[in-house]
# Entry
Amino acid sequence: MQAVAPGVAEVPGADVEPAAGRRRRLAMVASKGTLDMAYPPLILATTASAMGWEVGIFFTFYGLDILHRRRLSRLKVAPVGNPAMPPPLRGLPLKVPDILGALPGMPSVATAIMKRWMRQSNMPAIEELLEMARESGVKLFACATTMGVMGIRQEDLIDGAECAGATTFLDFASGADVTLFI
# Structure
């Protein structure tokens, strides 16, 4: 194994190329439906797709909100129970205590702050990232079982999202070079 940093070794086989004629594949599970948890799978998906990888995201439980036509535009940041939540003003030395995050209106404040940070960093909005993902061929799997549990219908989902069972996603993921649960 080749060291990549002091004390950190490369994963065996990480540098092995896929079989000739086969694209690398990324399979992710997105289970959370908050604004701050919508970015990671979509950024990774669009990046991997731009690198020529085949990508599929399985949206389950609250992660389905990312694919839901009406809920998508209302994704919020949850400040309660988020120990990394910074204060509203950068540079302040304290984190937001849970008690402050529980105050009425704090999720809206936290959401506005995150959206501002993203705009200032020239990051696309979630809707734009989803469009980029769709245009680049990322498979957006909506968990059929969870849709049934939560009363979500196919017509509630954005264009390009497909209702799929766990077996469909597991079949896709079985050929993945990288799998992530977010």
Remarks:
- The radius of gyration is 18 Å.
- Residues 1-8 have pLDDT under 50 and may be disordered.
